[in-house]
Design a protein that fits this description.
Blueprint: H1 6-15, E1 20-21, H2 34-43, H3 47-57, E2 61-62
Parallel strand pairs: 1-2
């Protein structure tokens, strides 16, 4: 959510290029974000699940780092 690059994703969509998120969890910083935490609690999911789902819903392939 912090680096959405909407214009780049729109260009990639138009050109048939698949966008890949190699670090969708923000190197751990997003896992403790209070807004992400609220969404996760409301949905009864972990923050990581919320972040991965968000990217997938945007059509971005996800490769989370461990």
């Amino acid at each position: 959510p912090q680096l959405q690059q909407r214009e780049l994703r729109a260009w990639c969509d138009n050109e048939g290029v698949q966008v890949v998120a190699y670090s969708p969890l923000g190197t751990g910083t997003l896992l403790v974000d209070p807004v992400i935490g609220q969404i996760a609690a409301k949905c009864q999911k972990t923050p990581a699940q919320v972040l991965v789902r968000w990217a997938l819903q945007l059509g971005v392939s996800v490769i989370p780092k461990s």
